[in-house]
Design a protein that fits this description.
This protein is α+β, with helices and mostly antiparallel strands. It contains 14 helices and 64 strands. The chain is elongated, with a radius of gyration of 57 Å. The termini are far apart.
Length: 940
């Protein structure tokens, strides 16, 4: 029995599985599905007019594409259009029992005109027209039964009717050929058929196409490949595709401008074969096409190859500087890193590390032991390092040797003048050392444990800057032996940012995040915004801050719609900007992990999520395209829009002031985005912002003259021409000159009428005003009199108040006098009582007694009081007849607002007696308990 070495068997299995499928880098392919162009699946023929607009014979009708908008025109009898040919300004089509041409109207739309109606009686029942050619002054329509030759000058037809069915007609530079089943190859001469060859090869093999070169004819058959027909000699034209094509059937073929052949098959896609017979490309549904059945082919003016498929339309940019490899199987995976090392291309992906010979169509081979995520590839001297999720590998003779497995490795960095390498790991930074030609792990830098995806050494080599996406930028110093991190500082500015990165370029450290590109100022150790580099990363353009420096000292940036690279000008050392118009949505690059590596002086390798693509900067040029206005439509408010002429100066009704303008550039490159800028003079004088949008709507424009101008650019190259459309929005009838003149006359009459009415009104108002003024004067006089009377009354009130004050003062004087005299009398009486009773003292006492005559004081007071407050006592007596003179006297004192204490000496009684008198007085007046006596008397 055989002994099985399972380890060797496993290795063999891995090596077998490690070989990927044929790795062919293909030109860009643009796919248009029926859902995109909104028409039928099958596209039987393709043509292009002098304005570079494309036309497709589609199951649903004539399909037009101007580079921006797809437009479908239904066929006259709603049948499948089988053939199309653009000749001068007309588009000829053929369908079921019908052929004719389409003409573009002034509104930019196509209108159909039938030619077959002229010979309707000669068309065979159930006839379909499969091909259209033009030759000199003739247009040739071919069905399976006949050939109809239409003379463009005489407008007459000639009809060729072979005995058997026609497979197809073919045009070369000097003649038109056609094949008749079981009869051979024929040529049309003077409107008649002439036999060219009845060789069995042409009788028994369906001819797909006929080409002409300097030696003779090249005839392409459906199943037996190419043949050469030189004079009457037939020979096989052997190609490297013969062995692959033998098992399939050819449906269409086309000779390209460079002499190569495009061969479309029924079940195996398309082959591009050089004029020498070598396969350049084989593209099928497995590596790029939408469908394997190729019904029609056309090379356009820009040398793009258009393919009408059984299900959709594809365009291959054969001349593109971009070539791509799409990993349809998923074995290669997403590319994160690449490097050219010792003549081999190494590619690091999320599946591991692969390699193949550079500039070859060999398959990628997997390097055993590297299964898993590869983050970076780095060449130092003669050694290739691989940064991996599992650690660090050294690649020697396509064998991976693990030298560090303690943590995943992001990147590598050399240390000038030292035999060491720094590597950024998941948990900090570590050091690799070269011992006798072998790289080994030496130590981890102690004190710093954050993930170090991006880090750089400063110019002093003793400071390290680390960018952490979720924490920001760290700075720390490192000892001379690179063993310990010290003085760790987290910078506050610039802040952290999504997909931010850090890199050294031209001995300066740069940091990029969504707010721009910042450069480290070595003097003050701060990051300052770089205005030149930041201009490319606007808010709308920013997707990633990833920066890459290549071997030729270019620094690369990636944005939403462009890839930028800068390099130092040799004359002034300033950075010069270059732009590659490749949007991120086309490249499928993984945001934040964009990668690019230099393969040679001009060719670069860029990794994507499903493979990679290469680009040659020397071939990156843009021709001068033309921008044109395709359609203009207007509409009234809430009504359907109508197309108008794009050739004439437009005159629009005042309520047709909503206008939509569509414009385009007929470019069909997958990685080129045309951008547009417009202005509408008379509405806005400044140019709009650049945009990829190819239409604009203006709403509710005011009457006036307008001039619409649109221009375009591709990358940073502005196209030379601008498209212009002038139009006028007419004024409504009520704003026309006649209406304004009528309005003017009306205004004059209205002014005259108003003036007359005003004068009449003014006269009436003047009379009325005079009367009102007189009345006002009278009222004013009465008011003045009332005011004077009021002033007099006020004066009288003031006089009364003064008299009251005078009376009160007099009363108080009398009170004081009586009090004084009473005191003197009392003192004298005391003296008399003590025994000294002289006559003189008695005389004095008698005199004082006479002067203390309350009755005299009352009479004086009463006279004064009546003078001031006339009729008060009478009024009070009338109101209260029972009041005595003493009661009235008390009321008078209360009227003066005197207190009981002040009243007592005036009545020559005690205060208690005054209170009793006041009580009795209340009783006589019948006052309620709530009413105060003094308040009542003051109110009388």
């Amino acid at each position: 029995m055989f002994k099985i070495n399972f380890s060797k068997l496993l290795l063999l299995i891995l090596l077998v599985n490690g070989f990927l499928s044929f790795s062919q880098e293909l030109p860009p392919i643009i796919k248009y599905s029926p859902n995109i162009y909104n028409a039928g699946n099958q596209n039987w023929m393709v043509s292009q007019d002098k304005n570079h607009i494309l036309y497709f014979a589609n199951n649903e009708g004539l399909l037009e594409y101007n580079g921006t908008v797809w437009t479908l025109y239904k066929s006259l009898n709603e049948t499948i259009i089988r053939s199309v040919k653009a000749i001068d300004d007309l588009i000829y089509t053929g369908s079921y029992m019908e052929f004719g041409y389409w003409k573009r109207m002034t509104n930019g739309r196509l209108t159909y005109f039938s030619l077959s109606n002229k010979i309707k009686d000669k068309i065979i029942d159930d006839e379909q027209f499969w091909n259209i050619l033009n030759f000199d002054k003739w247009v040739v329509f071919q069905s399976l039964n006949r050939i109809y030759i239409y003379d463009l000058e005489s407008k007459n037809f000639k009809i060729i009717t072979p005995k058997n069915s026609i497979t197809k007609i073919f045009k070369t530079e000097s003649a038109i050929y056609f094949q008749v089943i079981n009869e051979g190859l024929f040529e049309i001469e003077n409107g008649k058929s002439q036999l060219v060859s009845e060789d069995l090869i042409f009788k028994n093999n369906r001819i797909v196409n006929v080409f002409q070169d300097e030696s003779g004819l090249i005839i392409h058959t459906q199943t037996n490949g190419f043949y050469r027909l030189i004079k009457n000699s037939i020979s096989k034209f052997v190609t490297s595709a013969d062995s692959e094509l033998i098992n399939t059937s050819i449906y269409s073929s086309y000779q390209l401008n460079n002499g190569n052949f495009a061969v479309g098959t029924i079940s195996d896609g398309i082959f591009i074969i050089s004029k020498y017979g070598k396969i350049e490309y084989h593209i099928s549904q497995t590596n790029g096409l939408s469908n394997n059945t190729v019904l029609s082919l056309l090379e356009d003016f820009d040398k793009n190859l258009w393919i009408g498929l059984d299900n959709g339309i594809n365009c291959i940019n054969l001349q593109s500087p971009v070539k791509s490899y799409s990993d349809e199987s998923g074995k290669l995976g997403t590319v994160y890193a690449s490097v050219l090392y010792q003549g081999k291309l190494y590619v690091g992906t999320n599946q591991g590390l692969f390699y193949k010979a550079n500039n070859s169509k060999d398959s990628f081979q997997f390097i055993y032991g590297t299964k898993g995520q590869v983050w970076s590839l780095f060449v130092n001297g003669d050694t290739l390092f691989c940064g991996h999720d599992s650690g660090t590998f050294v690649i020697e003779s396509n064998i991976a040797k693990c030298i560090f497995n303690q943590s995943g490795t992001w990147k590598f960095q050399t240390i000038p003048n030292k035999n060491l390498l720094l590597q950024g790991n998941y948990y900090g930074i570590s050091v690799l050392e070269n011992n006798n030609g072998q790289w080994v792990f030496r130590n981890k830098i102690a004190g710093f444990g954050y993930s170090s995806k991006y880090f750089e050494l400063s110019s002093s080599n003793h400071e390290i800057y680390v960018s952490h996406e979720y924490k920001g930028i760290f700075k720390f110093t490192i000892d001379n032996n690179f063993t310990k991190a010290e003085k760790i500082i987290k910078l506050n500015s610039p802040p952290k940012g999504k997909n931010a990165s850090l890199i050294k370029y031209n001995n300066a450290i740069y940091y990029t995040y969504k707010e721009g590109v910042f450069k480290l100022n070595n003097k003050n150790q701060t990051f300052e915004k770089d205005s030149l580099l930041s201009n490319i990363l606007t808010k709308d353009e920013y997707t990633s801050g990833k920066m890459i420096v290549d071997k030729s000292n270019k620094i690369w940036f990636f944005s939403k719609n462009y890839i930028y690279y800068f390099y130092r000008n040799k004359l002034n050392y300033k950075l010069k900007q270059n732009t590659i118009p490749i949007p991120s949505k086309f490249t499928n690059s993984l945001t934040g992990y964009e990668n690019i590596s230099q393969l040679n002086n001009s060719e670069y390798f860029i990794g994507t999520t499903d493979g990679y693509y290469t680009i040659n900067l020397n071939d990156l040029s843009f021709k001068n395209y033309t921008v044109f206005i395709s359609t203009i439509s207007v509409n009234k408010l809430n009504e359907k829009s109508n197309d108008i002429s794009i050739q004439d100066v437009g005159e629009l009704h005042y309520d047709e002031n909503n206008i939509a303008i569509n414009y385009s550039v007929a470019e069909f490159n997958k990685y080129i985005n045309a951008e547009y800028q417009y202005k509408l003079e008379g509405f806005q004088e400044n140019w709009s912002q650049w945009s990829t949008k190819s239409s604009i709507n203006f709403k509710n424009l005011s009457p006036g003259d307008y001039k619409f101008i649109v221009r375009s650019k591709i990358a940073n190259s502005n196209l030379e021409n601008s498209a212009v459309y002038k139009f006028t929005i007419l004024k409504p009838w009520y704003f026309t000159n006649l209406a304004l003149f009528i309005y003017f006359l009306g205004l004059l009459y209205l002014a005259f009428f108003i003036n007359k009415r005003y004068k009449s009104y003014y006269t009436k108002q003047k009379t009325k005003l005079i009367e009102e003024n007189n009345l006002l004067l009278e009222i004013k006089e009465l008011e003045n009199e009332q005011q004077l009377m009021k002033l007099r009354n006020d004066q009288l009130s003031l006089d009364v108040d003064a008299k009251n004050k005078e009376l009160a003062f007099s009363t108080m004087s009398l009170i004081k006098k009586d009090e004084l005299l009473t005191l003197i009398k009392d003192d004298l009486k005391k003296t008399t009582d003590e025994g000294n009773k002289s006559m003189s003292i008695k005389s004095v006492i008698s005199t004082i007694t006479k002067n203390i005559n309350n009755e005299d004081s009352w009479n004086i007071f009463k006279d004064a009081f009546d003078t001031v407050d006339k009729d008060f006592l009478k009024k009070l007596k009338t109101m209260h007849p029972l009041l005595t003179p003493n009661d009235l006297r008390l009321c008078a004192y209360l009227r003066l607002n005197l207190s009981s204490k002040e009243i007592a000496p005036l009545l020559n009684i005690s205060v208690r007696s005054v209170e009793i008198k006041r009580y009795r007085l209340r009783k006589k007046m019948n006052l309620n308990h709530e009413n105060g006596l003094a308040e009542y008397i003051l109110s009388v």
